[in-house]
C-alpha cells in the first residue's frame, strides 16, 4: 500500500514537473537564441539645415559592412530608423559606424559612440538604442554641372525668345529626368532628380490658384465690365487727356491687384486703342503707362502677379501680409509713375484733338456697355466672396488655392457655365505647364547644390547684414527680372531667400520676401520681356499697327522702373528694418 502511494506520488510529480522542465528547456533555447538588437535613428540635413531625403545608409561593425536585407534611406524629413540584430554580446566593446551616401553630396560617416542599453524584450533579446544627427556637405559632381547648364539654357531660351517658354521649361525638365534615369542609373554622380522628387517640386497651390482665377476672369469678361470701365474713364475725363491717362492707369492698377494683369491688359487694350485713335494720338502713349501700372498694381496683393503667388505659397504668407507690407508703397509708386508719364508723354497728350466729347461718350456708351447684368451680379458677388476668403485664409490655415477654387467652382455652378468650354478657352494651359516644368528645373538645381552655393555667396557678400541683404535681393531681382522673365527668376530665388531669412539676424520680419516681391514684380517693368503683361501689350499693339521696339520700350520704362525701385529701397529700410 505504501509502495503504491509512493508510486502514485512520483507519477503525479513527473506529470506536473514535465511542463516546467520543458519550459526550462525552452527558456534555455531562448537564451541561446537571444540576440543583441540595435535600433538606430537619425536625421540628416544639409549645411542650410534642410532635410536631405533619399540618402542611402550603410552600417559598419568594427570596419566591416553589415549585411541588411532592405535598403535604408531617409524620408522627406531627412530622418530614418533601422533595426539591426547581432549575436548576443556583440555590441558591448564594438565600434559601429553609419555611412551616408547621396549623389551631389560628400560621403559622410559617423561613429556611434553613445549607444544606450534599454533592456531586454519579450524574447530575451538585449535592446540597444542609438541616435545621431549628420550634416551633409555638397560635392561638385557632373550632376551639378548638368543641372546648372540646363537651368541657364532655359533662361537663355526664354530671355531671347529662341523657343516658347513652355517648351524651354518642359524640355529642361525632360532632360533632367532623362539623364537621371540613363547615365544616373549606372553612374551615381549623374543622378540629378528622381521622378518622385520632380513631382513633389511642383507647387500645386500655385497651379490651382492660377487656374481658379483664370476661370473667374474668363466668366467675368463676358459681362463687358472691363471695357465699360474704360468708357467711364473717358466720360469722367471729358476730353482731358491727362486726366484720362491717369484714370486708365488707376483702373488698370486696381483691376490687376485682384485679377490677372495679363488678362486685364488683354481686355483693356482694344478700347484704349480706339479711344487714342479718336483723339488722334499714338495709342502707345496710353498703353505703356497702363502696362506699367498693371505691374505696379499686381505687386500689392498675393494674387496680383504670379511671382507673388509663388512667394506666398513657398513662404506661407497670407493675403493680408502682402496688403499690409506692399499696398502703401505700391500706391506711392503708382502716383509717381502717373506723374512721370504725364511728363514723358506731355507732347503726345497736348496734340490730342477733342472735337466732340459728347458724341464720343455716346459712341462708347453704346459700344462698351454691360452686356449681361445678371452674370455681372453673380461674378461680383463671387469675386467679393473669394477676396473675403483670401483675407481670412491665414486665420483658417487654408491655402489660397482653396479659396480661389471654391469661388470659381461655385460661380461655374450658379451661372451654369459650360465647364468644358471654360477649360478649353479660358485656361492658359501653356502657362500652367510652364510653371510645372520650371518648378522641376529649379528643383534639379537645388538638389545638385547650385541654389545652396548662390545662397552662401549672397550671405557672404552681405556679411550677415540685413540692410545689405535686403538691398541686394531687391536690386538684383529688379535688374534680373528686367532681363529675363520674372517668373523663372523668382522660382530660383525662393529657396535662396528662405535660407537667408533663417540665418540673417532680423530677417524673421519677412523683409527679404518683400524685397524679392518688389524687385521681381517692379523690375519686370524695365523691358518688354520682363513680365508677361509687357509681352502681351507689345504684341497686341503691333497687330494693331503700332509696333514698339525693344529700345523704345527701355527708354520709356527703364527710368520709372529705377525710380520705383529707389522708392522701394527707402520703404524697406524705413518701415521693415
Largest sheet: 5 strands, antiparallel
Number of strands: 9
> Roughly what fraction of the amino acids lie in strands?
5-15%
- Share of helix among residues? 55-70%
Q: Main traits of this protein?
A:
alpha+beta; Protocatechuate 3,4-Dioxygenase, subunit A; 577 residues; 66% helix
Question: What is the topological layout?
Answer:
Layout: H1 2-33, E1 35-46, E2 56-61, E3 64-65, E4 72-73, E5 79-87, E6 96-101, E7 108-111, E8 116-120, E9 126-136, H2 142-159, H3 165-180, H4 183-186, H5 195-201, H6 204-220, H7 225-237, H8 241-258, H9 261-279, H10 284-298, H11 306-315, H12 319-344, H13 346-350, H14 357-367, H15 373-396, H16 400-415, H17 419-425, H18 429-448, H19 450-462, H20 466-483, H21 486-503, H22 511-523, H23 532-543, H24 550-576
Parallel strand pairs: 1-9
Antiparallel strand pairs: 1-5, 2-3, 2-4, 2-6, 6-7, 8-9
Describe the structure.
The chain is α+β, with helices and mostly antiparallel strands. Among the domains are: 34-136, Aromatic compound dioxygenase (Protocatechuate 3,4-Dioxygenase, subunit A), CATH 2.60.130; 225-369 and 449-576, no CATH class. Helices cover 66% and strands 10% of the residues. It is built from 24 helices and 9 strands. The chain has helices at residues 2-33, 142-159, 165-180, 183-186, 195-201, 204-220, 225-237, 241-258, 261-279, 284-298, 306-315, 319-344, 346-350, 357-367, 373-396, 400-415, 419-425, 429-448, 450-462, 466-483, 486-503, 511-523, 532-543, 550-576; strands spanning 35-46, 56-61, 64-65, 72-73, 79-87, 96-101, 108-111, 116-120, 126-136. The strands form 2 sheets. Strands 2, 3, 4, 6 and 7 form a 5-stranded antiparallel β-sheet that branches. Strand 8 (116-120) and strand 9 form a beta hairpin. It is elongated, with a radius of gyration of 33 Å.
